[in-house]
Design a protein that fits this description.
With about 375 residues, the protein is of the alpha/beta class. It has 17 helices and 8 strands.
Length: about 375
């Protein structure tokens, strides 16, 4: 096993100021002691979850059966049983990460849980559920995930104004990130205007990566398929697997502009914490690319990278940390701009809009599937 000094994950955190979180949560992870071990051996400083993760954790896993059966016997609804399962896991994960939260003065140690994906376009419902989730989980280091939809961002602002830490998720476009950052700032300003403390609120803006390259690469492949000019083929091929990281580097430049504004600096003087960019969807889907490309390529100060277990282990084995978020910035702008070339003509804004819709669907479907599976399991347990 690598020592702390040899492990690239610890180097990323200690030398480059990026926090490593893990995109995974299950009761097995909690009860086996694996999460506590990962904090020590892999430097995991936080956890993110989503409906797809909970579906994978709960469906077909007998570890939840006793609690499900107890819920049935207590005449709980299916949704109440579902929430009892996930809230219990979130609380336990929060408790395990609480020492990290305290040691980092509330910078890290968070566990993220998403409001139901079915209400992503309903501001009032999102606000109500975010409040309820925060109150029922009742842990200082829980972070409520709200999608960065046009309807979600007012909810982000409202929750921040109420002192609730928020993970703004499903951000693809740079403009969407900027809007999320200003929603955070407006929420803090509202608290300041009311004379309330802002020093204990945290937020991350989850900026998605691999899904962008999957979409753009598919469009580039279609273009290449119909070309015979070697120069054009080479030009277009050179963009494959490059747009997501370039887009993220541009977002980081926007982050730097925002924290340089007078509005932000006035808040910082009152104890506000920066809303960090969090790199999400970091598992490499194309086997021809490096399995740690979305880690190595975006190491940088005051950021978070949330890794699924396989990527976490791959990075522990062979990441090559360096401060790359600030490298090749001009090239990043050029790569994104080249999508507008006459030979390519890919509308990045349209791609981002499609990805947001698809991203919401990727959370709604497993949520619906999980509820159906719970209904089936409840029926089977009742008959036993």
């Amino acid at each position: 096993m690598l020592s702390t000094e040899q492990n690239p994950l610890f180097t990323i955190e200690s030398e480059y100021g990026q926090s490593i979180w893990m995109d995974n949560l299950s009761r097995d992870l909690l009860e086996s002691g694996e999460l506590a071990k990962l904090i020590t051996t892999r430097g995991v400083l936080g956890i993110t979850s989503n409906p797809a993760i909970f579906e994978k954790a709960i469906v077909g896993n007998a570890i939840y059966d006793t609690e499900i059966k107890a819920g049935i016997q207590a005449n709980k609804s299916l949704n109440e049983i579902y929430e009892s399962l996930i809230f219990s896991d979130i609380r336990r994960a929060c408790d395990i990460l609480l020492p990290v939260y305290k040691q980092t003065n509330g910078i890290d140690g968070y566990v993220s849980i998403e409001v139901p994906p079915t209400i992503a376009t309903d501001t009032k419902s999102t606000i109500a559920e975010a409040r309820r989730y925060h109150a029922e989980i009742a842990r200082p280091n829980v972070m409520i995930k709200i999608p960065g939809t046009p309807e979600g961002l007012p909810a982000v602002e409202q929750m921040i104004s109420e002192g609730i830490s928020i993970n703004v998720t499903l951000l693809f476009a740079v403009e969407s990130y900027v809007e999320a950052a200003w929603a955070y700032i407006r929420g803090l300003e509202t608290r300041v205007a009311k004379g309330e403390d802002i020093s204990n609120i945290s937020s991350v803006a989850s900026f998605f990566l691999s899904r962008i390259d999957i979409s753009i690469d598919a469009k580039l492949d279609l273009l290449i398929k119909n070309l015979t000019d070697p120069a054009k083929i080479e030009k277009i091929s050179a963009l494959k697997g490059k747009i997501a990281i370039a887009n993220a580097k541009i977002a980081y430049q926007e982050y730097k502009k925002i924290i340089a504004t007078d509005r932000w600096q006035q808040l910082e003087a009152k104890g506000a914490r920066v809303q960090r960019l969090l790199w999400a969807s970091t598992s490499t889907k194309d086997p021809s690319y490096s399995d740690v490309m979305y880690v190595d390529g975006l190491v940088g100060d005051n950021t978070v990278n949330t890794l699924p277990p396989n990527t976490l282990e791959a990075c522990a084995d062979h990441c090559d940390p360096a401060n790359r978020i600030e490298a090749g910035v001009d090239q990043a702008y050029g790569l994104v701009a080249s999508l507008q070339d006459a030979d390519i003509n890919i509308d990045l804004d349209a791609v981002m809009d499609e990805l947001l819709i698809d991203g919401l669907d990727k959370f709604v479907k497993p949520f619906d599937s999980l509820m159906k599976s719970l209904a089936s399991k409840a029926g089977n347990l009742t008959s036993i």
